[in-house]
Design brief:
Blueprint lengths: L4 H15 L24 E6 L6 H9 L4 E8 L3 H9 L6 E6 L4 H5 L4 E4 L11 H22 L4 E4 L4 H15 L7 E3 L2 H15 L10 E3 L6 E3 L12 H12 L1 H9 L7 H19 L4 E8 L7 E9 L2 E5 L7 H26 L1
Parallel strand pairs: 1-2, 1-4, 2-3, 4-5, 5-6
Antiparallel strand pairs: 7-8, 9-10, 10-11
GO molecular function, one term: L-malate dehydrogenase (NAD+) activity
InterPro entries: L-lactate/malate_DH, Lactate/malate_DH_C, Lactate/malate_DH_N, Lactate_DH/Glyco_Ohase_4_C, Malate_DH_AS, Malate_DH_type1, NAD(P)-bd_dom_sf
Protein name: Malate dehydrogenase
Length: about 350
C-alpha cells in the first residue's frame, strides 16, 4: 500500500515526538494528542525521575521490558534525550518519552500511575548517608512538589538515599500541599531483602529464589534488621551465622561502594530491586491477590511514624501493613537499636521541610 507524502511526514513527526516532546500544546502535528505515547498498549503509565543516573538508566531499561508498562516517561536535568533514544529502539511494548529540565517536569508527571524517584548523587567511599542527605534532600523535595501538583494520586516509590529521611521529606511535602495519602508513599527497601535472600542462600547452599527473608526497620546500617528467625523455608542458624549474616546484610551497600573503589555505588542491584518492587506495585494496581513485599512506609507497627515491614499492595496502594511477628532476643535488641537511629533520621527529614 502506498503512503501519501503527508501521511509519511505525519508518521515521522509522531516518532520524533516520542523522543523529544514538544514545548507547546498548540494543536500542531507534534502535539501529544497526535502522539501514540499519550496512551500506548493497555497497561500503566510510569515516570522515572532521575532516569539518566547510575540507577536510573538500568532501572529505565528494566521498566521498558515490563509488560505491565504502556507508557514510560524518563525525566532528568541532563542526558534524557540520549537515554530515551537508546531505549526507544528496544522492541518492547512500552512507549518511551524523554523530558529534560524543570520546565518539562509537568509534562513528565501528568497522568502517571507510578512515579519512581532514584534522583540524587550516589554514595562514594567515605561518604555517610548523612553526607548524602545534604545533597539529596533538596532534590527529593523539589521533585515531590512536582508530584503533589501534577499527579497527586500516583503511587510514589522513593529510592533516593537516605531513604530513612527522604520518605519523611516526601510526606511533609505532600502534607503541605494537602494531598498526602500514606497508602501511596513507599520507600524502596527491596535491595535489603534481595541481599538477605542471596546471602542466606549462600550459607544454606540453595537457590536464592527459594528463600524469603523479611527485612524490617529502615534502609541504612543498623536500621536494617533481617528477621532470620522468620526465614522461609524455616531453618536454624548458629549465633555466629546470625551475626555474620546480619552484619553483611546491614553493610551490603558499603561492600559494593568499596569494591567499586570510587567508581560508584550499588546501581545495578538497586535498579533490579527497584523494578522488582515497582512490578509488585503494578500487579497490585492490576488487582492481583497476595502481592506482598517489604517497604519503608507510614506505620503503627512501632511508635515511629515510618517503619519498614511487610506490606500488601493493591489497587489503592498499601492495603495492609503487617506486624513484626515473633522476634527472638537478638532481634529484639536489634530492633531497639534500629528504632533509636531511625527516629533521628525521620525527624531530620521532617525538620528539613518544616524549617
Amino acid at each position: 500500500m502506498q503512503c501519501s507524502e503527508q501521511t509519511t511526514s505525519f508518521r515521522i513527526a509522531r516518532i520524533s515526538a516520542h523522543l523529544r516532546p514538544p514545548q507547546r500544546e498548540d494543536g500542531g502535528i507534534l502535539s501529544r494528542g497526535n502522539c501514540r505515547a499519550k496512551g500506548g498498549a493497555p497497561g500503566f503509565k510510569v515516570a522515572i525521575l532521575g532516569a539518566s543516573g547510575g540507577i536510573g538508566q538500568p532501572l529505565s531499561m528494566l521498566m521498558k521490558m515490563n509488560p505491565l508498562v504502556s507508557v514510560l516517561h524518563l525525566y532528568d536535568v541532563a542526558n534524557t534525550p540520549g537515554v530515551t533514544a537508546d531505549l526507544s529502539h528496544m522492541d518492547t511494548t512500552a512507549v518511551v518519552r524523554g523530558f529534560l529540565g524543570k520546565e518539562q517536569l509537568e509534562s513528565a508527571l501528568v497522568g502517571m500511575d507510578l512515579v519512581i524517584i532514584p534522583a540524587g548523587v550516589p554514595r562514594k567511599p567515605g561518604m555517610t548517608r548523612d553526607d548524602l542527605f545534604k545533597i539529596n534532600a533538596g532534590i527529593v523535595q523539589s521533585l515531590c512538589e512536582g508530584v503533589a501538583k501534577f499527579c497527586p494520586r500516583a503511587i510514589v516509590n522513593i529510592i533516593s538515599n537516605p531513604v530513612n529521611s527522604t520518605v519523611a521529606i516526601a510526606a511533609e511535602v505532600f502534607k503541605r500541599a494537602g494531598v498526602y495519602n500514606p497508602k501511596l508513599l513507599m520507600g524502596v527497601t527491596t535491595l535489603d531483602v534481595a541481599r538477605a535472600n542471596t546471602f542466606v542462600a549462600e550459607v544454606l547452599g540453595v537457590d536464592p529464589k527459594a528463600v524469603n527473608v523479611p527485612v524490617v526497620g529502615g534502609h541504612a546500617g543498623v536500621t536494617i534488621l533481617p528477621l532470620l528467625s522468620q526465614v522461609q523455608p524455616s531453618c536454624y542458624f548458629t549465633k555466629q551465622e546470625v551475626e555474620y549474616l546480619t552484619n553483611r546484610i546491614q553493610n551490603g551497600g558499603t561492600e559494593v561502594v568499596e569494591a567499586k573503589a570510587g567508581a560508584g555505588s550499588a546501581t545495578l542491584s538497586m535498579a533490579y530491586a527497584a523494578v522488582k518492587y515497582a512490578d509488585a506495585c503494578l500487579r497490585g494496581l492490576r488487582g492481583d491477590a497476595d502481592v506482598i513485599e517489604c517497604a519503608f512506609v507510614a506505620s503503627e507497627v512501632t511508635e515511629l511514624p515510618f517503619f519498614a515491614t511487610k506490606v500488601q499492595l493493591g489497587r489503592g496502594g498499601i492495603e495492609v501493613v503487617f506486624p513484626l511477628g515473633p522476634l527472638n532476643e537478638y532481634e529484639r535488641a536489634g530492633l531497639e537499636q534500629a528504632k533509636k537511629e531511625l527516629k533521628a533520621s525521620i525527624e531530620k527529614g521532617i525538620s528539613f521541610v518544616r524549617n
